[in-house]
Amino acid sequence: MNNQMPKAVNVEMMSTILKIEFDNGETRYLKSHLNKEHAEAYSMKKGKKKMYC
User: Fold this and answer.
1) For every one of its 53 residues, what pLDDT tens digit does the chain have, with 9 covering 90 and above?
2) Does residue 14 contact residue 26 with C-beta atoms inside 8 Å?
3) Is 45 left (phi over 0), alpha (psi -120 to 50) or beta?
4) Residue 4's Cα: distance from chain center in Å?
5) Number of other residues whose CB lies within 10 A of the CB of residue 34
6) Neighbour count for residue 21 (Cβ, 10 Å)
7) DSSP state of 4
8) Where are the alpha helices (DSSP H) in 1-53?
9) CB 50 within 8 A of CB 36
10) Would strands 8-14 and 27-31 be described as parallel, antiparallel, or unpaired?
């Protein structure tokens, strides 16, 4: 059996979802981690805000 992984040829950021196009013509959508990081950055934990510079 030949189990080759398709290679990503194009990746687009669509708000909070990544649209990934592969060399075999397949398109997949992946939920981005950015929502979680933004929520953590603006939530109060032990009285301190997380700062991203």
Assistant:
1) 577 888 999 999 887 788 999 999 999 998 877 777 777 777 766 555 556 55
2) no
3) beta
4) 23
5) 13
6) 15
7) P
8) 34-42
9) no
10) unpaired
Q: Judging by beta carbons within 10 Å of its beta carbon (0-12, 13-18, 19+), is residue 22 exposed, middle or buried?
A: middle
Report the distance separating Cα 26 and Cα 3, nearest Å.
16
Tokens for 4, please give them.
Answer: 């080759």
Q: In what order do the strands lie in the sheet with 17-22?
A: 8-14, 17-22, 27-31
Query: In this predicted structure, what is the pLDDT of residue 22?
Result: 94
In this prediction, residue 19 carries a pLDDT of 92
